[in-house]
Design brief:
Blueprint lengths: L2 H18 L4 H41 L4 H22 L9 H30 L1
Helix pairs in contact: 1-2, 2-4, 3-4
Length: about 130
């Protein structure tokens, strides 16, 4: 469940409650407008948090990539190459024991984090040049 679905789910019961109120249509409309204003503000806070989080991740990846120590600068690519080798070996049946579901989950998270981190790094580089 995504964070936006969670926020919408939080506000949905209140919206239904407003529909069931025994007041005029104008009062119901005003209550819904206020509720949607609060929901929009909550979503804005979440977007701001996610943006700052992505920016922080990008700075970490950037600083690691620019490190003068070879291991610090290359541990992510080395890890991803090892993961790729495991996936290929498992797919071809070359491993004595197939990868467990937890290993596949770890590979998915690692690949997702690596791709997001690299994408964020490239986006931030472009954004810095643009602004």
């Amino acid at each position: 469940m995504g964070i936006l679905s969670l926020i919408s789910g939080i506000f949905q019961p209140a919206a239904r409650l407003i529909d069931e109120l025994h007041t005029s249509e104008d009062e119901k409309l005003q209550a819904k407008i206020q509720l949607m204003t609060v929901q929009a503000a909550a979503m804005e806070v979440v977007f701001e948090f996610e943006s700052k989080n992505l920016e922080a991740q990008s700075r970490i990846v950037n600083s690691e990539a620019q490190s003068s120590h070879w291991l610090t600068a290359t541990w992510r690519p080395i890890t991803m190459l090892c993961m790729l080798a495991l996936v290929v070996c498992d797919s071809l049946g070359w491993l004595p024991n197939p990868l467990r579901d937890e290993a596949w989950l770890l590979l998915q998270l690692g690949l997702g984090g690596y791709v997001v981190g690299r994408s964020a790094e490239k986006i931030m580089t472009i954004a810095k040049k643009t602004f």
